[in-house]
Amino acid sequence: MPGAEVAVIVESFNETEHSSVERLGTALDAAERAARDHGDARVVLADGAGNPDVAALVAERFPGVRHVRADARDYDVAKQAAARAADADVIVYLDGDCIPQTDAWLESLIAPIVAGDAVATAGFTRYEGGWLQRVLSVMDLGFLLPRRRHPVPCYASNNAAFAADALERTPPPDGDMRSRCFAHAQAFARQGTPMYLAPEAFVHHEALPLVPERLRRGWDLVAAARVDPELPEARWLRLGVLATPLFWAQNVVVDARRALAYGGDFGLGPVGRVAAVPVMAAIRLIDVAGIVAALRGKPVPGS
Hints:
The protein is of the alpha/beta class. It contains eleven helices and eight strands. The chain has two domains: 4-205, Spore Coat Polysaccharide Biosynthesis Protein SpsA, Chain A, CATH 3.90.550; 210-295, no CATH class.
């Protein structure tokens, strides 16, 4: 196939964890519409799971989508394999459990890269649903706040874009985490080419099962410090399980600051922001089991 300016890469990994083939189909449909509207773009499926129902979905409904099967069942590895196979100048990631909320999603996401103002951008992602999902958005996606153009310390891998040559030079680092997006964004920042938020590139993320996701999030807090030893939290690792309250307290404080200052960007009103603070602290107690497991060198509980 000839090259294209943009490749929109949709992954199927989430379908194996919490999502569905139907949701993946909705994401692929949105990706194809965005690619058609752009013109010089194609859609690529990063299939790291190998579900025959996914293959059937592509064959029956999306014959124009390039289906790239990864050798390893790994979220980041599957996406990298698809990015290498895409033959495009700009690589866009849209997860199979995420749905763009504006017609300008793709153009807003890639515009700074095409203009040469950035080598990578982060779109704005929020969990779909009511008050609790907006609170969880602050907890899990608050690193994107505030919702205006600014350098971000991390990106949501479900909604991001990269200049292909920059992604080739600076791929996500290796590690045990499901997604190494934090360390990846930090690598760009340390090179003097930080990722910038594209605030109008807005998607809704499918709601996640609470307890399994909190356990994984807690485990990832520790794993992030192992993947990136330059982080200040890395020094806590030598304390073993005694570091548990440090990881918990740090995130409770960050959650509260983000909710009170910028919770409105996730749709929380003034009263809802204040009410969110104790709720977030309580939810973080579920994270503790994942934190302890990671500090003890154990896998995510329940995995």
